[in-house]
Fold:
Amino acid sequence: MIRAMAALWLALLVAAPLAVIAAISLAVPDEGLPPFRLGAPLADNEAWPLLAADGFYAAALLRSLLLAAVTAGCCLLLSYPMALGLLRLPARLRPWVVGLILLPFAIGFVLRMAAWVGLLRDSGPINAALLALGLIAEPLPLLYGWSGLFLGMVHSYLIFALLPLYAALSARDPRLEEAAADLGASPAVVFFTVTLPASAAAAGAAFLLVFIPAAGEFVVPELLGPPEALLAGRAIWLEFFQSRDWPLAAAASLALLLVLVGPILLWQRLGRAP
Amino acid sequence: MILTLEGISKRFGALTALAGLDLAVAEGEFLALLGASGSGKSTLLRIVAGFEEPDAGRVLIAGRDMAGLPPRLRPCAMMFQSYALFPHMSVHDNIAYGLRRAGQYDPRRVEELLALVGLSGLGARRPQQLSGGQQQRVALARALARRPPLLLLDEPLAALDAGLRAATGAELRRLQRETGTSFVMVTHDQQEALALADRIAILEGGRIAQIGPPQEVYARPASRFVAEFLGAANILATPAGPAALRPENIRIDPAGAWRARILARSFRGDAWALECALPDGQRLRVLRPACEPVPEEGADVTLAWEEAALVPLPA
Structure:
């Protein structure tokens, strides 16, 4: 029963939309609504050959993957000390501190991004403070630059890395670290030889849990990022809404998904690891 | 003295784990700390290893005060109850861990340790691929790798099957003799403590109630607690005050002076355990060899014991 429901759900919500997008990607653009014509001979399809031949899309995809990798890396780097710090708190304080960390995420995503815009803009509090302290003469171009983009990305995705890592580290055996310390390891050596390797699968899963959605992220770069940074998400958006080349947009969407199949499968494997 | 503890106290909130405990362990000695669960014996081990700081008192290892020293700088090694083997490392790397930290890594030394615990050829395995008994020996080899003068063992046999325990205990004893390491073993199992240790120390209320060679502590319990804890002695009220009487020292003897009724009997394989009642209502535990005929439950018998079997206790 449950299996049948799941199959139905998957067919309706995953397979069917994917089939529609695949069909559109094989169509040819046309005037009118919808702006494409199905059933054209495959030889007339321009979307896939263009996607493969034009370096513009490959570059956008590569830039997106790089942004996602750096975001996921930063999230992981922040998550380890945060998770370990949380676990050192007295148990009765932990839920409160976790609650404080999650509090910003109770606010709508767009509002949070708007708050970043306010903070980062030339006349915002960060630049005002730096100017007042005499540390800078001109406002730093934080907003609509790479720094603003990374800040927004890391802030948006941090909990996706933090929570699984926190769960994995809270389930670890503290005796392993004690044994390492007893055998002569300093705290840093304990971390790198025991804590980190023993949580490697969880760290990998946490990395991918950020990497996969971040690769297709569209809103954060749009609101905070540099206008010239062409990412996969924006390239797809442009084709859909500006060029109205739906077959090309559909093909680019599928290409992004295909690139992410590997990481998704890897994430599922890591999730099952002990 | 390899280990000297002076007035060690430790509280966890309202709970007093240790209350001014004194202890001295000689070089090359095998000492068993015996106590009920919650008697503070594991806490004591963790204080010696440096995982807990005592609220009061001093820990001296080989005469050096350990105050403020983290575990990695203490000359002792610890073997954990759950073994705490590193699951992401081979057996070889587990054993080499301490040697590498000290810059003393030598594969021959690791091979030597594997041979010492009878695991030659298994160095490439992961701990998860070994049986419980083999894991226990890896943990032992890892703890002994740097030749610590003092090894702390937290319930080293508790995670093993009953059938494996006796043999592994004897193995532990052999290794202790061969390496000349001082062992301080924490256990709740009195058979284990009596069988393996040179001396046993019995913990009660955060202090050592009695310490001495196993035979002596068993034969001459110094307090009611020790008498009842070790060997479940009967406590009799005699004209001269309370006295302990071991269950195995009571005979069923037609010429005996004490009339009693058998309330319950249970067969233990090597012995019969009897629960008897004297006419005044006092209960006595009696232990008789399995080869001896034992009357049914409800039977009236007469019991006897030697006067010398009564151990006077402080009132």
